[in-house]
Amino acid sequence: MQNEWILDVLVDLQAFARQNGLFALADQLDDTRLLAALELARDSEGTQADDRRPLVPAGQLSGGVGRRI
């Protein structure tokens, strides 16, 4: 995967968030990292751009983080 560097960036951002008490952001970045890994894996399988659909609906991984109440 030539775009694997993005996973390292997300790990660094997550570490920064945890070290600075931004725990909701750190949790969201964990979900983002998972989604990025899934999409990179799907792209490496040669999926055509027209066949791409969201792997997970927005907000489903975070357990409601960022949801308005």
Rg of Cα set: 14 Å
SSE pattern, N- to C-terminal: HH
Query: What do the pLDDT scores average to?
Result: 81
**Count of alpha/pi helices:** 2
What percent of residues adopt helix (DSSP H or I)? Answer: 40-55%
**Helix-and-strand structural type:** mainly alpha
Q: Work out the number of β strands.
A: 0
- In whole angstroms, the N-to-C terminal distance is 39 Å
Largest sheet: none
* Range of strand content: under 5%
Describe the protein's architecture and organization:
Residues 44-54 have a biased composition (Basic and acidic residues). Residues 44-69 are annotated as: Disordered. The chain has two helices and no strands. It is mostly helical. It has helices spanning 5-19, 23-44. Helix 1 (5-19) runs antiparallel to helix 2 (23-44). 54% of the residues lie in helices and 0% in strands. The longest helix has 22 residues, at 23-44. It is flat and about 40 Å long. It has a domain at 5-48.
Q: Helix and strand layout, with pairings?
A:
Elements: H1 5-19, H2 23-44
Helix pairs in contact: 1-2
Describe this structure in a few short sentences.
The chain is mainly alpha-helical and 69 residues long. It has two helices and no strands. It has a domain at 5-48.
Which structural traits does this protein have?
about 70 residues, mainly alpha, flat
